[in-house]
Amino acid sequence: MRRYGKHTDEDDVRVRPNRKGNRPRTHIRPKHEDAADGMVLTVDRGRLTCLVDDRVVVAMKARELGRKAAVVGDRVALVGDLSGDKDTLARIVRIEPRTSVLRRTADDDDPYERVVVANADQLAIVTALADPEPRPRLIDRCLVAAFDGGLTPLLVLTKADLAPPDELLELYGALDIPYVVTSRDELENSDAADRVREHLDGKITAFVGHSGVGKTTLVNALVPEDRRRSTGHVNAVTGRGRHTTTSALALPLGGDGAGWVVDTPGVRSFGLAHIDPSRVIHAFPDLEPGTEGCPRACSHDEPDCALDAWVAEGHADPARLYSLRRLLATRERHEGD
Prior knowledge:
By secondary structure, the chain is α/β, with parallel strands linked by helices. The chain has helices spanning about 135-150, 165-170, 185-190, 190-195, 215-220, 275-280, 305-310, 320-330, and strands at about 35-45, 45-50, 55-60, 75-80, 90-95, 100-105, 115-120, 120-130, 150-160, 180, 205-210, 250-255, 260-265.
């Protein structure tokens, strides 16, 4: 250990030689104005598969982006080897601003939110009418996440050959959500896929649903040339399905509409710890003007809420107010209720 006296001389400090020179650190980052535009298709252990023009390119995130992560659907700027050849690696140097974000937490007590997909236009909530039984609370939570993130919801009801859809559709009728009802036989002969496709053309659609509802089967029918993993089965004891999709993946929807389908892993919970309830009202344009008379920080489900008088005066359907309050209260209820 070297000891110094009162009068140290820094000139004798040894500096390890560096062939590349000792350049001072700088906070100025390169602009990469010549970077190519791309879209993230999937993320796997730090490697991001991106579409650049008509080429599929594997890339990694630049260190200069810090902790900011890119997710499926992100529009990014890339530099480096963009040939898409085997064993080549590009670099993502910029993540463009997002137009929408679908987020969730593991549960309502988890402060860490996870971005599922970025820049999607709509959220297709896939639920089976039987085997497994529908879980309205989970549907409600997906709707809240969609409204909060700027996505238009779409209900896709599967296995109509096992149970009728009337009761479930009545529950969401006041929300005016578009829906498609399918059966297993229709999926096999592509009739259901064609009807679902009408809602997807020209849009980026994220598919969510808990395991066993037929989500991946539907995606396989929509994009037959790029089939995903084999479908799973529902456990006869627990009524739950087996996860067959382990990572989100964006797939091009063929045809004239040129849309995209984002298949996501099956979920068993959809935490809403990150949701600000005050933003959900924006999805109810017929009710939003009635909140002008609400007290500050109104939860819209309390005695002084102005929405009660707004609805009583005939400005909106009472069923709409009931639906809003049911969605706002969904954070307080367990999804299996």
